[in-house]
Amino acid sequence: MSPHPSTTKTYASRAELHSNPTAKRLLGIMERKQSNLCVSVDVTTAEEVLEVVRRVGKSVCMVKTHCDIISDFSKAFVDEITRLSDEMDFIIFEDRKFADIGNTVTLQYASGSHTIASWSHLTNAHPLPGPGIISGLASVGVPLGRALLLLAEMSSKDNLATGHYTREAVRMAREAGPEFVVGFIAMSRVDQEGAKEGEDFLVMTPGVGLHSAGDKMGQQYRTPREVVYDSGCDVIIVGRGIYGIKGGEEKVKEEAERYRKEGWAAYEERLGRK
Ligand code: S5P
Fold first, then answer.
1. Which atom of ligand 1 is found nearest the CA of 161?
2. Does the active-site annotation cover 97?
3. Phi, psi dihedral angles at 23 (to 5 degrees)
4. Which residue in the list 9, 58, 68, 100 is annotated as catalytic?
5. Hey, whose CA ends up nearest to atom 19 of ligand 1?
6. What is the pTM of this model?
7. What is the fold of 5-270?
8. In which pathway is this protein known to take part (predicted)?
9. Of all protein residues, whose CA lies closest to atom 22 belonging to ligand 1?
10. How far apart are CA 38 and CA 159, in angstroms?
11. Other Cβ atoms within 10 Å of 141 Cβ, number
C-alpha cells in the first residue's frame, strides 16, 4: 500500500489544509517547537498538574488533561494553565471522551463545574451515539474555535473499537467536514482507505512508552518510532512514561525531551530526511 498522503507532508504544509483554528495552531506549534509530543498529565491536584506542565511545557505541542480527576479544580487552575499555554506555546486537550446524545454532551461541554469548552482547545468523543454527538458538541465548540477528535481506535487490550466501528468513525468524521472534527484518537492511519483529495486528519496516539509493554489493566505500549514511522500517526501521547518517571523533577524534564527527540526523529525519517 502506498503511504497515506498526510504522512509524506510536513506539519507546516498540512497547517494550510486546515480551516479549523485549533488544528492550524497545533500544526504550527509542532513545526516551531519540533515536537509531536503530547504529555498526558494524569495527576490529581491542580498544583501537581501545573508542576508537571511547567517541567514539560517547552518540549510539548500539547498537554492533555482529565479535569475530573483534579480534586481541587478551580477557575484559578484554568487561568494558570491557560497562561502557561500562551507563554510556553502548547494546545490544551481535555480528554473528556464524551459519549452521550447530542443534547447531553452540549450541556456537559458548556456547563457544570468544569465548563470544558471555555478553556480546552481540543476535546474528544466516542462516535458510539452517532453523528448527533458531533452536532451537539459543534454547536458549543465551533463559535469558540475549538476542535474535536473522534475515538476511532483505542490502545487497551481487547477493546471493541475495531473493524466496522472504526470505519464508521472515519465516515462520520468525513461527513461532518473539517470545520470542527480535525482527527482521531487511533493506533494507525485509519483514514487510509478512501482518503479524499485535500483531506487531512490528525491522528493522535496514546499507548506510548519506552520502559514497559503495558500495565496490569490492559494498557499496551509502543515506541514513538513504531507509532510515528511504522504506523504513520501524527502525535504521540505519553503519560506515566514521563510524569511517572522516578528520579525527581529534572528527570521528568529530561524524559520529556527524550520522547520529543524520538518522536521528531521518527517524523523526519518518514519524510525521508534521514
Ligand atoms: O485508547 C486510548 C485513548 C486514550 S485518550 N488509550 C489511552 O490510554 N488514552 C489516554 O491516554 C488515557 O486516558 C491516559 O490519559 C493516557 C495514557 O496514559 P499512560 O500513562 O498509559 O501513558
1. 1
2. yes
3. -65, -45
4. 100
5. 239
6. 0.98
7. TIM Barrel (3.20.20)
8. Pyrimidine metabolism; UMP biosynthesis via de novo pathway; UMP from orotate: step 2/2
9. 239
10. 22
11. 26
Whether the CB of 227 sits within 6 Å of ligand 1: no
Q: Is 253 marked active-site?
A: no
100 belongs to the catalytic site: yes
pLDDT (tens place) for every residue of the chain, 274 residues total: 788 999 999 999 999 999 999 999 999 999 999 999 999 999 999 999 999 999 999 999 999 999 999 999 999 999 999 999 999 999 999 999 999 999 999 999 999 999 999 999 999 999 999 999 999 999 999 999 999 999 999 999 999 999 999 999 999 999 999 999 999 999 999 999 999 888 999 999 999 999 999 999 999 999 999 999 999 999 999 999 999 999 988 999 999 999 999 999 999 999 999 7
Phi and psi of 134, rounded to 5°? -70, -45
Of residues 95, 191, 200, 234, which has the active-site annotation?
95
**Residues paired with residue 205 on neighbouring β-strands, in sequence order:** 236
Q: What is the C-alpha to C-alpha distance for residues 258 and 260, in angstroms, rounded to an integer? A: 5
Residue 94, all three cell numbers: 481535555
Return the exposure string of 157-182: e unless at least 16 CB atoms fall within 10 Å of the residue's CB, then b: eeeebeeebbeebbebbbebebebbb
d(CA 88, CA 33) in angstroms, rounded, equals 10
- CB of 204 closer than 6 A to ligand 1? no
Ligand 1 proximity of 20 Cβ (cutoff 6 Å): no
Q: What is the C-alpha separation between 59 and 53, in angstroms, rounded?
A: 10
- Among the residues of 89-162, which ranges form H helices? 102-110, 132-141
